Structures are given as C-alpha cells and as structure tokens.
Amino acid sequence: QVRLVESGGGSVQAGGSLRLSCAASEYTYSTGWFRQTPGKPREAAAVILSGSGTTMYASSVKGRFTVSQDNAKKMVYLQMNSLKPEDTAMYYCAAAVGPSLSPWNDGRKYHYWGQGTQVTVSS
Fold it and tell me: Which whole-number Å values give the CA distances from 83 to 64, 74, 91, 108, in the listed order?
C-alpha cells in the first residue's frame, strides 16, 4: 500500500505561481498529476517516470508547468507558472507501481491516489 500526500495548494492571482508537492510512502514507478473541477472529467496534467526522469505534459499546461522529483526523499513536485483561472481545480497526485500499456494520461494506469490539494486562480 502506497500512501500519497499532496500539499502546496492555495489561492493565487492569474499570472502567479504555485508549487505542489506529493510525498510518497514508498518508491513508485511513475507519478502523475491530475486535476478535476466539479462537473468536469478528470484531466491529466503531467507525469514523471521515477527511473528515467522522463516527463510528459498535457497540451493545456505544457510550457507553464514543470514536474520534477527527488527520489531520495520520495517526493514529486509540480511547479505551476503563469497560472490561469482555468487552472482552478483540485489537484491529485497518483502513483503507478509498474509499467502498463495504458497511456500516461489514463487514470486507470495508476494504483494509488492522494487526497488532493485545491488550487484556485482568480482573474
């Protein structure tokens, strides 16, 4: 059982920045960041592979968000810059314990989820 705890959410004005953190209780194969607003489907934002450090991003956040990791601390971060009101959502980190054929942005790929941290961007 892997426990994930997110932190770093908050309220910020458009154009501002936030850094989210995801603390894992164990080493995982990959960690993804997802976001969801009420009434909308969950959206994948970014993922990082623990071993290679390979990252992938949704087109909606590419160039503004950066995912990184500190494997020694079992931490994954999501640096969010140039935030927009449409980035407002609950953000979740999710961990996969091994590779799968599912695409990186498919939530079914991930075995464990955190409780989420709220990000609110005002215009």
Answer: 8, 26, 14, 27
Closest C-alpha to 121, from 18, 21, 46, 6: 18
Share of the chain above pLDDT 90, in %: 94
User: If you ran DSSP here, which 8-state letter would residue 108 be given?
Assistant: G
- Concatenating the DSSP letter of every residue in 51-105 gives TT--EEE-TTTBTTEEEEEEGGGTEEEEEE-S--GGG-EEEEEEEESS--SS-TT
Q: Which of 78, 94, 85 is nearest to 9 (CA)?
A: 78
Full strand arrangement of the beta sheet holding 4-7: 4-7, 18-24, 75-80, 65-70
DSSP 15: T
Under DSSP, the state recorded for 107 is: G
pLDDT for res 109: 92
State the pLDDT confidence band at 101, using cuts at 50, 70 and 90: confident
Q: Which residue has the tokens 């941290």?
A: 117
**Number of CB atoms found within 10 A of residue 103's CB:** 11
